[in-house]
Amino acid sequence: GIGKVYAGIATGFTMFFAGIGSLAAPPVGNKLASIIPSAPFLFWSILCAAGLICLVLLKDSSMIRREKLD
Length: 70
Known about the structure:
By secondary structure, this protein is mostly helical. The protein is 86% helix and 0% strand. It is built from 2 helices and no strands. It has helices at 7-35, 39-69. Helix 1 (7-35) packs antiparallel against helix 2. The longest helix has 31 residues, at 39-69. The chain is elongated and about 50 Å long.
């Protein structure tokens, strides 16, 4: 993990980006809905896929670090 020293910083970054997403995603989804009714669902699924990719990359990098320490 990131350890005790950086836990607050990591939590702050997480909350910051979650706030940006909560602020930006609904207006973008509403604008897309006025163009094509199914577009917001595609937009939100892309956001979910991007988040999943970030989690997978994060897990892989932590596993690499553990292997180097052993």
